Amino acid sequence: MAHSTAAAPADEDGTGTEKGTSLNFKVGPDFKKEFKGFAVAQGISMTDLLKEGFALSKQKRRR
């Protein structure tokens, strides 16, 4: 049975704090390996790396 989760208030960077919402997109195996390796090297999760990249992209594109 499908159910939705209520969105939590957004953080300062606008990414929110909710758990359990999935982004469904495919990437190539080489990109995934590089992305995961970079996240591990930085000591952060892949999700946190994606959120950080999104926040930086929004900042750059607003200029």
Quick rundown:
By secondary structure, the chain is an all-alpha fold. 48% of the residues lie in helices and 0% in strands.
Rg to the nearest angstrom? 14 Å
Shape type: globular
How helical, in percent, are the residues?
40-55%
* CA-CA gap between termini: 44 Å
Report mean pLDDT, rounded to a whole number.
82
Q: Describe the largest sheet.
A: none
Report strand %.
under 5%
- Strand tally is 0
- Total of helices: 2
Order of helices and strands: HH
Alpha-beta classification: mainly alpha
The low-pLDDT segments are 1-10
Descriptive report:
InterPro entries: Ribbon_hlx_hlx. The chain is an all-alpha fold. The protein has a domain of 33 residues. Helix content is 48%, strand content 0%. The chain has 2 helices and no strands. The longest helix has 16 residues. The N terminus is likely disordered.
